Every structure is written in structure tokens, then in C-alpha cells.
């Protein structure tokens, strides 16, 4: 089994081979569909999707359905955006292993070794979730845990209309898999002029953002001036991930939920909606006042 070591982090990536991993990044073509109106059949490129089991210090934490690209960035971004680690240095080791096949697709396992501080933080989080059933919130003990307070973000300028228009025009060129398959979400990081610097695609919108966060951390530029654009709607989870990653500006192509807007205002997140044929809409800014109960 081949292994490689990243220069920016003390992480060992063990995978079957680079060629196997890269092949999973490419769409697959499955024959067998036909048109409703006729009996004619055809085929189409489909996005690749695999289950990835995440083990933290030998204990199962989650199984995620992901596009099997940029997996090291995904793990880093996922752990940061979920509040398990505060910095990539808290990942002491990371290995990926192929566990076999299901439905003729590989199943992968990420084995993460956490430092002592992150391990303790994760254990406390697990303890608060243990043994809770029937509340309808996947084991969450209270509403305070379901809707955690997001750290107040530093003030950041709103992007200009010109920058947003420039950003929007570039999107197709930065989504090669999405252009071919039409079934992937994407997360982009652009500078304040609207020039895209990084792009990550995945079958899951949360995964795409986690990959982007991990990419910025690996590039040691999480606090660089700029903005994140998501091709999806904005839900509260995306706001929480932005806050934990200290990213102050989020633009989405889909409208936000009301709860996402309220938490964005609490956190001072610049939250914008970029409709296709209408002017950009600002729902929250870094000057938004936090809501306080009377």
C-alpha cells in the first residue's frame, strides 16, 4: 500500500495507489436508462460517490458519503468545521485505507490520530451525545447543542456588485465534474475582486465546504481576505462551519433559511444571496447587531 507525506501537515496518507484514487475522481458512465417517451436507451456520465468511515483514535465517529477527491482536505476541514480540532496541528496522523467493495464501489476508511487536547474535546462531545434517544435531534441533549453559539467573526467588507458578477461568470470553468455530471455541489474561495483562487466539488454541499476549508488550512491562508461562494442554498450548518473556520463572507446561489440568517446576524457573518437574474441580496453583515432577549 502506497503512502505519501504532506509537507504542510504531519499527515501520512495511505491509499491503494495514486491511479486508483484519481480514477475515482472521474465520473462513471453506466448504461441502462431509457427515455419515458420512447424505448430508446442512452448513457450519461454520473458523479462518483463512496462511503468514507472516519475513525478518531481508533473509535468510529461518522460515515460520510463523499466524492473521493481531496480527501485529506476534507478530513481537515470536517474536523475544524465540526469543532473537534482548532488547528490542523491537532491531527497527528491520518491514513486512508480501502476496506472493500459495496455495490461494486470502493469503501474507504480514514484513521485519524488526534492530539491530547483534541481527543479530550472530542470525548466530551461524545459523552454529551451518549444514550440520548427519542428527542428528534439525533441524540442532541438540548436546543443549545443543536443551535450552538458561533464565535463573533471579525469585521470584513462586503463584496462589490462588480466582484460578484466577475465571480459568477467564472463558475462554469471551475466545475469540470459538475459540468460533465450536473449532480455536484461546489465551494469556491475568491479574493475581494472576484477572482476565484480555489474550488472544491462534492456530491454533498457540506462536504464541498469542508474540502474548501481544509484546502485553505493546508495553504495556510484561512484568514486571507476574500469570500466563499456555495452553489447550494444556505442552511444553518453552513453558517456554523463558516464561523468555526473564521471565514467572514458567504455567498450562496440558493436562498438562505430564516434560521441561517438569524445565526449569521448573531455571528456578524456577511451573508449574501446571488440570484441568477436579480441583484445580489444582503441578509447579514459584519455590522449586524446580535439579537438579545429582553
From TrEMBL:
Q: What is its main location?
A: cytoplasm
Q: Where is the active site?
A: 135
Alphabetical UniProt keywords: Cytoplasm, Molybdenum cofactor biosynthesis
Q: Name one GO biological process term.
A: Mo-molybdopterin cofactor biosynthetic process
Q: Tell me which SUPFAM superfamilies the record gives.
A: Cytidine deaminase-like
The protein's location, in the record's own words, is: Cytoplasm
Pfam families recorded: FdhD-NarQ (PF02634)
Q: Which GO terms describe its cellular component?
A: cytoplasm
Residue ranges of coiled coil = none
Gene Ontology MF annotations: sulfur carrier activity; sulfurtransferase activity
Which InterPro entries does this UniProt record tie to the protein? Answer: Cytidine_deaminase-like (IPR016193), FdhD (IPR003786)
What's the family?
Belongs to the FdhD family.
User: What's the stated role of this polypeptide?
Assistant: Required for formate dehydrogenase (FDH) activity. Acts as a sulfur carrier protein that transfers sulfur from IscS to the molybdenum cofactor prior to its insertion into FDH.
The protein's name: Sulfur carrier protein FdhD
**Species whose genome carries this gene:** Oceanisphaera arctica
Supply the gene name.
fdhD
Amino acid at each position: 500500500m502506497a503512502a505519501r507525506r504532506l509537507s504542510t501537515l504531519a499527515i501520512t496518507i495511505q491509499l491503494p495507489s495514486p491511479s486508483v484514487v484519481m480514477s475515482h475522481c472521474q465520473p462513471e458512465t453506466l448504461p441502462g436508462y431509457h427515455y419515458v417517451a420512447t424505448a430508446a436507451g442512452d448513457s450519461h456520465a454520473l458523479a462518483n460517490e463512496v462511503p468514507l468511515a472516519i475513525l478518531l483514535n481508533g473509535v468510529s465517529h461518522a460515515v460520510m458519503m463523499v466524492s473521493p477527491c481531496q480527501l485529506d482536505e476534507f478530513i481537515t476541514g470536517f474536523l475544524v468545521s465540526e469543532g473537534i480540532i482548532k488547528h490542523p496541528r491537532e491531527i497527528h496522523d491520518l491514513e486512508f485505507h480501502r476496506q472493500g467493495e459495496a455495490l461494486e464501489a470502493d469503501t474507504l476508511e480514514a484513521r485519524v490520530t488526534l492530539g491530547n487536547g483534541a481527543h479530550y474535546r472530542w470525548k466530551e462531545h461524545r459523552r454529551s451525545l451518549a444514550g440520548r434517544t427519542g428527542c428528534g435531534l439525533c441524540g442532541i441533549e438540548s436546543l443549545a447543542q443543536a443551535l450552538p453559539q458561533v464565535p463573533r467573526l471579525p469585521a470584513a467588507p462586503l463584496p462589490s456588485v462588480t466582484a460578484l458578477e466577475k465571480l459568477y461568470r467564472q463558475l462554469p470553468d471551475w466545475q469540470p465534474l459538475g459540468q460533465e455530471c450536473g449532480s455536484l455541489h461546489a465551494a469556491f474561495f475568491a479574493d475581494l475582486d472576484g477572482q476565484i483562487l480555489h474550488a472544491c466539488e462534492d456530491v454533498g454541499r457540506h462536504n464541498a465546504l469542508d474540502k474548501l476549508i481544509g484546502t485553505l488550512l493546508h495553504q495556510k491562508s484561512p484568514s486571507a481576505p476574500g469570500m466563499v461562494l456555495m452553489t447550494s442554498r444556505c442552511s444553518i450548518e453552513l453558517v456554523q462551519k463558516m464561523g468555526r473556520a473564521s471565514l467572514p463572507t458567504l455567498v450562496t446561489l440558493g436562498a438562505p433559511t430564516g434560521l441561517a440568517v438569524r445565526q449569521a446576524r448573531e455571528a456578524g457573518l456577511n451573508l449574501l444571496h446571488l440570484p441568477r437574474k436579480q441583484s445580489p441580496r444582503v441578509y447579514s453583515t459584519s455590522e449586524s447587531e446580535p439579537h438579545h432577549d429582553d
